[in-house]
Amino acid sequence: QVQLVESGGGLVQAGGSLRLSCAASGSIFSINSMGWYRQAPGNQRELVATITKGGITNYADSVKGRFTISRDNAKNTVYLQMNSLKPEDTAVYYCNADVNKLFQRGNYWGQGTQVTVSS
Q: How far apart are CA 78 and CA 93, in angstroms?
């Protein structure tokens, strides 16, 4: 099995910063892309940012210039540095990983971490 455990969410004022972390563990041979998604109440889950094993990044237009995704391949961990936070960034943030196990490939999600930005 593969587990993704997120941390770093919380309550912050508008303009503030938070850093999310997500550590993958379990029967992992290697990890392809990793990413962050978010879901606000009443909305569908949406992409925030992704990063390939080689470090190529992709961002939603709404977070470009404010959020930075990075990863530590040795630790199977992905990070999301969130700066200049806005109330509309309030959501549950989910970590995602495309994992190669020994004989199969799978897509896994974390349990989510709440980010609340007050105005």
A: 13
